[in-house]
Amino acid sequence: MMLDLERLRKIWTLVERGGSAGERAAAKDRACAIAGRHGYVLEDIPVLLAGGNVHKAREVRERQQREKETQRQEAEEALAKKAALKAHRQALRDQANEITGRYEGRLFHVMPDEHILVEAVQSYALPGWRAGYDWSSSALEALRSALPLSKTIDDALAELNHWITLRDDRQFVRRAYRQASQDEDVMPEAVLKRMVILADLVQFELPINTIDDLMKRVSFQMDTRKGRQMSEAINLEAILRDLAAVRQTHISETEELKTHIRETEAPEPPDPVQTTCPPKPRHNTATGRRKEIEAILASPDSQKMTLREIASLVGG
């Protein structure tokens, strides 16, 4: 049976111009029922009555619905990003406040050691605002001697990490509060140059003679964020020099231990006064001391001891 468009038109007129809300709702239900028997939906009725193309009108509605859904999702995503950014910035400010609190509000004040370094090279400052320094050999020497220069890998790393931490904290706080002049460094140029000096000490300058220090040096050379980008030849030269020093130390300590063992194994002359006394306990004899040395060398603790320390444990 064909769709009765005239009947549908009359019913739809009640939907659009009916008296009460109840009459309009009832008319809409009747129109939907009539159209539904022919495979149409509520939105198709105005198109049918206008003589339009229902399928094309459906495509337009579906496209509009998709666009509307896309806009809704984009709006939700924008709000979520805005909320996440706000939360992230608040977290940064909270962390910045915690860092500032550790320095009792003096994070960006000139620290005593900073002041010493800046004053040490003040006479080498170039004229003009922010012109920098004339880093001649005498200026670098003044900077090296302004504070006690580290003589061990651990001390050099400790001072360098002190400056790195201070710099990182200042940069973090400045970024967290989105302060101006973010391209400027947060450390005086004298401190930055002192950091280079310390990095050079760790990277290749300081002489070392233990495996532990050598491992620290190699690890530092591999961390390109800390040391300077030196040539591979310079780094290898430092490592070879260190290996030679470690080997020589090991040879010297080994010879000392051998000498000590030979001396303890030498026969002791009899003491006429003690000939009638009971023999000494086994661990006080040469054989006993040698076994004591062997026991120490076989123990896990000996891995952390030098040969000289092992020798001192058995006396002689």
Automatic annotation (TrEMBL):
Keywords: Coiled coil. Residues 256-265 have a biased composition (Basic and acidic residues). Residues 54-95 form a coiled coil. Residues 256-289 are annotated as: Disordered. The keyword Coiled coil applies. This is Uncharacterized protein. The lineage of its organism: Bacteria, Pseudomonadati, Pseudomonadota, Alphaproteobacteria, Acetobacterales.
